[in-house]
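Thread: Newbie trying to understand structure tokens

Hi all, I'm a second-year student working on a class project, and my supervisor (Dr. K.) asked me to get a predicted structure for one chain before our next meeting. I've only ever worked with sequences, so writing a 3D structure as a token string is new to me. If someone could post the tokens and maybe explain what I'm looking at, I'd be very grateful. Here's the chain:
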Amino acid sequence: MKLVLLPGMDGTGDLFSPLLQMLPGFQWEVIALPNSGAQDYASIIVYVKQRLPDEDFILIAESFSGPIGMALAKSGMENLKGVIFVATFLSTPSKCLVFLARCLPLKFLLKLPFSTLFIKALFLGSDASDELIHLFKTCLYSLSSALIKARLGAMYSLIYHPRDIELPVGYIQAVSDKLVCSGKLNEFRNSFNNIMVKTIEGPHFILQSKPEQCAAVISEMVPMLKKHSKLVIEN
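---
Reply by user tm_fold:
Sure, no problem. This is what the structure looks like when written as tokens:
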């Protein structure tokens, strides 16, 4: 079963590299988000739909891409066999944080001497390697400030609408996530009748900071999603 990965707000897909090294037994495809044009969710969903494979697949939707995963899940598309949501949300994760991020010169802040401490505290965890921090900074440096602000604007405008969806899904929750509160998981519980929840100790960028543990959870979820078995399992 092919895995199709949708990235977080950076949109490049480059931050998946630590995880993909831990998934040698899977076929996978990363769909990068558009780096130009409209960045509202409706436009990005159309862009992603046009690039999905013709074969059966399971979607992995990280952070910013959670609402995209939801839209595809409720669309009833035949080839989509399940979704694994990771550290994500269906409504604005925090109005205050998103508003503040839109006002701050984020790329400039990354160049300041204390930026590594800031990145570890909010995004990657205290034990993040120099290699991971470098990868994180490189991805963000590659984005224009206008693109970052546009995606933050899309997040700020999100409104949650309860659904009633039978497609089986998984959710990987980062226990020490400082960007997405644990209560956002309830939006998924109230929208999906068939959900498997797994928690992993770590920061928001859990796929990058704990790739081996996340790969093990994904490897556990995929066969269950393929079978459309009744999930509703939490650890």
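A couple of things are worth pointing out once you decode it. The chain has one domain: 2-234. The mean pLDDT is 91. Feel free to ask follow-ups in this thread.
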